[in-house]
Amino acid sequence: MIEGKTTQITLKKQPNTQYPSDYPMKLSYQVYDLLLKHRFTIAHQSRDVQDTLIVKLEDEGHIGLGEATSNPYYGVTVERMQDSLEQFRQVVESKNWDHPSELWEMGKAHFSEDAFAQCALDMAAWDLYSKKLGKKLYEVLGLSPNHIPQSNYTIGIDSLEKMVAKMKEVNWPIYKIKLGTDHDLDIVRALRQETDTVFRIDANCAWTPEQAIRNSEELAKLGVEFMEQPLPREDWEGMKEVYQHSKLPVMADESCMVESDVKRCHGLFHAINVKLVKAGGITPGIRMIQEAKSLGIKTMVGCMTESSVGISAIAHLAPMLDYVDMDGALLLANDPAEGVKVTDSGVEFPDRAGIGAILK
User: Which pTM value belongs to this model?
Assistant: First the structure.
């Protein structure tokens, strides 16, 4: 396995970021219903609308934005996230923190069961912090945008005809194909007839070890790059078999949600997909990426079906990564924000400080 990039980031305060105690900081949040262009189906859920919570942190004339979507699979609702943030309001607005990582640590216990809400807050804190410095987030992190992996474009589960039509609708260099049906190989064969572009597949926990190993043989012949989360999250014994016998590299998603999962994935997965909402934000996400690199595990940061707020934040971490999945806003019919643009040829960063996202 080729080792990934090894960029190290120190989560420390930069100079000239003192927050005057007599200047009020304001926390607010708003719910948006994101309409999808097409019904989006994966192995365990379908949706036409995705609700999301966008958090604002306002201070000294700057506004930091963060985002986290609801997710019924993990029991996350926007109401629950709002309650968690409201209970933490006094800590946030007290301004007894100078750096996003400090705020994250202050909220570690409070948000121990609500990583999604902490992610939205942490993202907004990083956006605000970067804007106070007058820098883009990737500059604050000491990263260069010159070498960013190409994002894939996701094709959700549907009839063969509709999946082919979705792929033809968006000409893209890499497709992630959602699987978890009783005719998974037929789907990939049908899509392969339409294009010779790169395929990645994501079974979202739907297979048994035997299915994963058997399917990997045919998928390798069909030009698939890797398999993401073939088994249920807790099937660690099954993953030993898959890791040893798969004809394709395997990537963890549901099996690598938080920092403590990274080490556990070593020797069971070739790569991990860090989801910021599951991890609790940018602060722990960076630590997860760095730990994976130290173990020789490749890294991806993936997205939910979220607006350009969340996608823009991911884009600033992309220089650290081997792969990236940040197509969420491309699947929307009514993105309420604008920011980093993900295209079939790369990424376009707006000339704005922070993550670069603004609400329309």
Answer: 0.93
